[in-house]
């Protein structure tokens, strides 16, 4: 547990099995405060499952997950964990389709969460400015009052990243943010994430290698539910076992 | 603050709807009481009671729309909450009979005398008081919804499974209320009511007051639903409806929201039942029949799910159609209902109100900005 005090996320010996199949197998991972980490790995390596464990969607069969050195995430549920400051973007972009872009951000804005509070709530000028800022950051200002279901795939991805920012979490878990994006959108997204990483801890899962190269951060390779290699993108891509795990499929 | 919230949550359509309700709440009694029966515009007594009954179904439909249209909880058991509210009112009306029953027993309702019961069961205590009965009208369905919802939502029962257990709930209650030993009049239910608050239920004035009260209840229920759905809590409800787990990962306690809206909805259904019973003069276990709950869901779908006004409209239309069919072609009612449901699903997926709203929006767009009417649909097709 020596890494515990300084890690914002501490996963140790996590195992998750689905009907005997080990989606995560003795996985250990430590994320420092303010760090951005890229996670790569072949399909089915357990990347999404790892995020499910951190965010409380899946309970680990064994192992420990700690947040901020002291909070045992295995004991909490999704809403608690989100309120602690762990935000998540899903692999398949998930926004509230029947609400406007601005309302999607409003719902995500940190602050009121209780039933009575939200019932009595009314928009404050501060929220408005914050939403304007966020729209600026994710470049959707001109679509402010559009229904989210009219957005393109890439725009939905950005809106979801904007919602993550609106939550103002300490840690952002971003699952495949550039899937289905055009090249220029991909470059934009890398820029956006680097900007976000300036004052947040971020974990990014991605298959797109040029995108991961753009991020220019430490890379963890997952395969068959555990960590295969860790280091710079160049060093891990030179690693024999990594090449094998990708080619072996 | 309250006025601010009200103003924020009502729109033009709301004012039209509330105005219309106010108008019929005054006009129908006037046409009934002030015009001589020979007049062509005279509204006969049975019609007043019938329309009052439609309004009660309208309020029930509102309550279903609140959970289904705005939070995606398809309850196929809302008839249970309606019936419980109805029974609470029925128990008060039974106590009002006093010693004017067939057996002239001042202590016990007729059916208990008939069963040779010697004393009033404890759960009938308090129903002599109108205030107590009113409280039970809201509390009985509310508490049942709370317990049921707490268990179901906490274990994350959703979708079809939830619909099925709501249906089972109302079915189980129907079987229970059929039993004489339950002490609610068994098969026959509660009937032969005489007075409410000392006023004869047979009198024209009482009838019109009950009618107007139903119209007012629909109006207030509508305003409450608007307050909820137009607030930020309403945004959360819609978020739960469209992407439940996303909402959780934003830090909202989904089960609390579902529970809140389910309980409020059950209370509204209970009030609808309580207004229904004095106007139809009877409440029996048949009101718990699963078919009733399904019928009201169909009414909401036909009128327009998620539009509130459409739900009321749908309930009034369907009830009117039912009255007509039961009179003229009773065997065909279920076929007609099924056919209507299929037709609406195929041709008006957003119901009558949804269709009208889309038309009106299109008309306004064309009028306000000729040539730019397509802007709203310009986004890439998904
Ligand atoms: N709820 C579940 N029930 C059964 N098996 C599951 C479940 N969730 C994930 N799995 C399995 O666990 C393994 C890891 O899945 P996971 O989604 O974590 O992979 P991934 O690394 O995110 O893959 P991808 O790159 O395709 O998104 C897969 O083999 C998957 O089929
Ligand atoms: Mg995945």
TrEMBL record, chain A:
Range of residues in the leader sequence: none
Recorded coiled-coil stretches: none
Pfam families, sorted: ABC_tran, BCA_ABC_TP_C
Keyword Disulfide bond part of the UniProt annotation: no
GO molecular function ontology, one term from the record: ATP binding
Record's GO cellular component terms: plasma membrane
ABC transporter domain: residues covered: 9-249
Keyword vocabulary terms for this entry: ATP-binding, Nucleotide-binding, Transport
Keyword Cell wall biogenesis/degradation: no
Domain of life: Bacteria
Protein name according to UniProt: Urea ABC transporter ATP-binding protein UrtD
Organism encoding this protein: Denitrobaculum tricleocarpae
Gene that encodes the chain: urtD
UniProtKB/TrEMBL annotation, chain B:
The organism's place on the tree of life at top rank: Bacteria
CC annotations in GO: plasma membrane
UniProt GO molecular function: branched-chain amino acid transmembrane transporter activity
Membrane topology: Multi-pass membrane protein
Keyword Transmembrane listed: yes
Keyword Transmembrane set for record: yes
Main location: membrane
Protein localization: Cell membrane
Protein name: Urea ABC transporter permease subunit UrtC
Species of provenance: Denitrobaculum tricleocarpae
């Amino acid at each position: 547990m020596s890494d515990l005090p300084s890690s914002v996320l501490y996963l140790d010996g996590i195992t998750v099995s689905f009907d005997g199949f080990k989606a995560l197998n003795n996985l250990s991972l430590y994320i420092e405060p303010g760090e951005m980490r890229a996670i790569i790995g072949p399909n089915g390596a357990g990347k999404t499952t790892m995020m499910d464990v951190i965010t409380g969607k899946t309970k680990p069969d064994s192992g420990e997950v700690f947040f901020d050195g002291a909070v045992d995430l295995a004991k909490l549920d999704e809403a608690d964990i989100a309120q602690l400051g762990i935000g998540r973007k899903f692999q398949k972009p998930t926004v509230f389709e029947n609400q406007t872009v601005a309302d999607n951000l409003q719902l995500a804005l940190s602050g009121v969460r209780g039933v009575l509070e939200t019932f009595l709530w009314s928009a404050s000028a501060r929220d408005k400015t914050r939403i304007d800022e966020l729209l600026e950051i994710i470049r959707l200002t001109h679509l402010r009052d559009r229904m989210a279901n009219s957005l393109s795939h890439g725009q939905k991805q950005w809106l979801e990243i904007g919602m993550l920012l609106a939550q103002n979490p300490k840690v952002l878990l971003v699952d495949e943010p550039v899937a289905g994006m055009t090249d220029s959108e991909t470059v934009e997204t890398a820029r956006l994430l680097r900007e976000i990483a300036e004052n947040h801890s971020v974990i990014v899962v991605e298959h797109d290698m040029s995108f991961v190269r753009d991020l220019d951060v430490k890379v963890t390779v997952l395969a068959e539910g555990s960590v295969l290699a860790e280091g710079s993108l160049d060093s891990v891509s030179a690693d024999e076992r990594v090449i094998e795990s990708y080619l072996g499929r | 603050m309250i006025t601010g919230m009200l103003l924020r949550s009502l729109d033009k359509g709301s004012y039209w709807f509330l105005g219309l309700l106010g108008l019929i709440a005054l006009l129908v009694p006037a046409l009934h009481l002030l015009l001589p029966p020979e007049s062509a515009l005279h509204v006969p007594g049975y019609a007043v009671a019938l329309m009052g009954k439609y309004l009660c179904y309208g309020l029930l439909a509102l309550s279903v729309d609140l959970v289904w249209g705005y939070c995606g909880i398809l309850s196929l058991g809302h008839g249970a909450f309606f019936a419980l509210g109805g029974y609470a009112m029925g128990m008060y009306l039974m106590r009002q009979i006093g010693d004017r029953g067939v057996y002239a027993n001042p202590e016990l309702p007729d059916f208990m005398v008939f069963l040779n019961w010697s004393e009033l069961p404890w759960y009938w205590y308090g129903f002599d008081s109108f205030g107590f009965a009113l409280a039970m009208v809201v509390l009985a369905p509310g508490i049942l919804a709370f317990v049921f919802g707490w268990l179901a939502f906490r274990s994350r029962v959703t979708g079809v499974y939830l619909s099925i257990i709501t249906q089972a709930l109302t079915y189980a209650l129907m079987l229970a209320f059929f039993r004489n030993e339950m002490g609610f009049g068994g098969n026959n239910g509660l009937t032969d009511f005489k007075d409410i608050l000392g006023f004869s239920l047979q009198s024209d004035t009482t009838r019109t007051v009950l009618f107007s009260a139903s119209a007012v209840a629909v109006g207030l229920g509508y305003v409450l639903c608007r307050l909820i759905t137009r607030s930020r809590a309403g945004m959360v409800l819609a978020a739960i409806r469209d992407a439940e787990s996303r909402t959780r990962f934003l830090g909202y306690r989904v089960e609390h929201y579902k529970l809140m809206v389910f309980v409020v909805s059950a209370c509204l259904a209970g009030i609808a039942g309580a207004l229904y019973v004095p106007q139809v003069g009877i409440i029996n276990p048949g009101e718990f029949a699963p078919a009733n709950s399904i019928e009201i869901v169909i009414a909401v779908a036909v009128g327009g799910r998620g539009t509130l006004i459409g739900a009321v409209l749908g309930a009034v239309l369907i009830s009117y159609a039912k009255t007509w069919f039961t009179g003229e072609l009773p065997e065909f009612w279920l076929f007609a209902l099924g056919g209507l449901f299929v037709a609406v699903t195929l041709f008006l997926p957003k119901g009558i109100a949804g269709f009208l709203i889309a038309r009106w929006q299109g008309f306004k767009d064309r009028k306000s900005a000729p040539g730019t009417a397509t802007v709203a649909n310009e986004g890439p097709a998904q």
